[in-house]
Automatic annotation (TrEMBL):
<keyword id="KW-0732">Signal</keyword>
<protein>
    <recommendedName>
        <fullName>DUF4124 domain-containing protein</fullName>
    </recommendedName>
</protein>
<feature type="signal peptide">
    <location>
        <begin position="1"/>
        <end position="19"/>
    </location>
</feature>
Length: 222
C-alpha cells in the first residue's frame, strides 16, 4: 500500500510543482483513472476517460477531493429504466388491488358473506396446490427410475444412450417447472389469507363509520 502511494506521488510531483509555480487556484484539480489496467494521472481528462471511474485530487495539496463512479453503460441504463417501470407498474397494481378490495368490502352485507367469497378462492388454490404436490411426487418417481436405469448401465460398463439422457433432462426440467409453480401457488395462497384479514379489518371499520353516522343522524332527528 505504501509503494502504491509513493508511485502515485511520484507521478503527480511534476504536475504539482507546475501548478504551484504558476500559483494555480485552489479549485484546480488533477485526475487519476485506469487506462488499460494502468493508473494514469493528469490535469485534464481526455474524451475517452470522461465516463471512467476516477479520483479527483487537489492540485495544491495532492489530496483526493472526490471519487467519481464510472458512468453506466447503455445496457445498465436500460436495465435501470426497466426496473423503475416494473416498480411503477407494481405500484399501480397495488392501488388497483386496494380499490377492488374496498369495492368488495362495500358490496357484502355481513362478514360471513365476505368470508364465503374468499373461501371460494381459497378452495381453488388449495386444490391447485394438492394437484401440484401430486404432480411433483409422480415426476420425482419417474426421474428416479430413469436415473436408476442410467446408473445400472454405467455400472455394467454400458454407455447411457441418447434417448435415456434426453428423457432424464426433460423429466428434470418438468420437475423444476412444477416446483416453481407450487412455490407461486403457495405465495398466492398466503396472499389470499392476507387479503382476507385486510378485507375484514376494512369491513369492520366501514361498519363502525356507518353505525356512527347513523347514530349521529338519529340524535339530530331526536
Amino acid at each position: 500500500m505504501h509503494i502504491r502511494s509513493t508511485a502515485v506521488a511520484l507521478l503527480l510531483a511534476p504536475a504539482l510543482a507546475l501548478a504551484q509555480s504558476k500559483g494555480a487556484p485552489a479549485t484546480k484539480k488533477l485526475y487519476c483513472w485506469n487506462e488499460n489496467g494502468r493508473k494514469v494521472c493528469g490535469d485534464a481528462l481526455p474524451a475517452d476517460a470522461v465516463d471512467a471511474e476516477r479520483t479527483e485530487l487537489s492540485a495544491t495539496s495532492g489530496r483526493a477531493v472526490a471519487r467519481v463512479a464510472r458512468a453506466p453503460t447503455e445496457a445498465e441504463r436500460a436495465a435501470e429504466q426497466a426496473r423503475l417501470e416494473a416498480e411503477r407498474r407494481a405500484a399501480l397494481e397495488r392501488e388497483a388491488a386496494q380499490r377492488r378490495l374496498l369495492a368488495m368490502v362495500e358490496s357484502y352485507a355481513s362478514e360471513d358473506d365476505l368470508r364465503r367469497a374468499f373461501q371460494e378462492r381459497i378452495v381453488l388454490l388449495d386444490e391447485s396446490i394438492k394437484a401440484s404436490q401430486l404432480g411433483i411426487q409422480s415426476l420425482r418417481q419417474s426421474l428416479l427410475a430413469l436415473l436408476k436405469r442410467a446408473a445400472e448401465a454405467e455400472l455394467a460398463g454400458r454407455p447411457v444412450n441418447a434417448k435415456l439422457r434426453d428423457d432424464i433432462q426433460r423429466q428434470h426440467a418438468d420437475l423444476r417447472r412444477q416446483q416453481t409453480t407450487l412455490i407461486e401457488q403457495r405465495q398466492a395462497r398466503a396472499q389470499v389469507d392476507s387479503d382476507l384479514d385486510e378485507a375484514l379489518q376494512r369491513y369492520r371499520e366501514l361498519k363502525q363509520r356507518t353505525q356512527a353516522q347513523a347514530a349521529g343522524m338519529a340524535s339530530l332527528g331526536g
